[in-house]
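Target chain:
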Amino acid sequence: MTITKKILVAEDSSVIINLTKNVLLFEKYHITAVKNGKQVLEKLFNEDFDLILMDINMPLMDGIECTKAIRGLEDQNKARIPIIAITGNYKNFTMDDFKKAGMNDYVQKPLDYDHLLATVKKHLV
């Protein structure tokens, strides 16, 4: 029996959330979606996830700030969760910026769902 991997999708665009959900559900992942970084931290406080897809530009708390907060958590399992940045503004950031914030990888918008799946699978070994 395989254990369903739980993915937290942090994204303020409903369209992207729905498309991402459909792609990931097809692979039998369990998906929870939130709209900003504060909701990510609330969800993480109450639940365990295997991976986070983190939009960089979100209201209230952006993806970089949220990732830094996660990396600083006392619970080491939660602090080490793989985080994949999703960004349309990748020109404003380098992979180095994402790494410094504590992110493991990034996928740029518009999302290539084959690439997104491959990236997710790479971090859910």
